[in-house]
Amino acid sequence: MTIPSGKAVTYLGTYGSWYKVSYGGKTGYVSSQYVKVSTTTTPTTSTGTGRTIVIDAGHGGNDPGAVYGSTYEKVIAFDIAARLASTLSNTYGYNARMTRTNDVYLSLAQRVELTKSYKGSAFVSLHANSSTNTSYHGHEVLVPTGESYTTNPYISASRSLGASINRELGARIPTIRNRGVKYQNVYVVGKNSVPSTLVEYGFISNANDRSHLTSTTYRQRMADATASGIHQFMSTYK
Ligand SMILES: [Zn+2]
């Protein structure tokens, strides 16, 4: 058969000066002098371009965080963090680094230090809330205040990052109340040196929130909403 000039064929192998190719459902050999070889790049939908996002699972080791019965904040935070890291790297192409990759204790200062040594472009800390008042419920994000406590030079970018995550969580998980964006002095946010926010995914002391926080389906949804919020922020932040 004849292959018209300029048509693309699929390269299957080299045999001497011949290429084995497939074209139009047929397989055969063409002289290599008539074929221009080009490499195809897999089209990518990700624009993460390898920038590093530091994912901080709150608490760990002998610091369980909030505890309600057999529900531990450190376990919930770690599970969402691992899902988030996976979505960020697999779906968006970021280099996701976790401050802790198992159940160990890290000081707040260590978490901030790790952001530096990982050369992170953004930092997100993952937590669950708790209260003695079991009617308190909802998710929220904490962003830096303008008070002198904040030494993070990225106050406004941190607020954008937090707002972006909060918007995605609100849109994707409407069955948890959205408590919004809170300005609060939090060490890992205020003392960090990159755009930073802390997410409280819900109250483990509240029955409705707890049913979400202990569900792997909802943890995945929380991770995906957070990843989308991070990505929307990063797309506008150079
Ligand atoms: Zn916490």
From TrEMBL:
Residues 1-39 form the SH3b domain. CDD domains: MurNAc-LAA. It comes from Exiguobacterium aurantiacum. This is N-acetylmuramoyl-L-alanine amidase. SMART domains: Ami_3. Keywords: Cell wall biogenesis/degradation, Hydrolase. InterPro entries: MurNAc-LAA_cat, N-acetylmuramoyl_amidase_3, SH3-like_bac-type, SH3-like_dom_sf. It comes from the Bacteria. The keyword Transferase does not apply. The keyword Hydrolase applies. Coiled coil: none annotated.
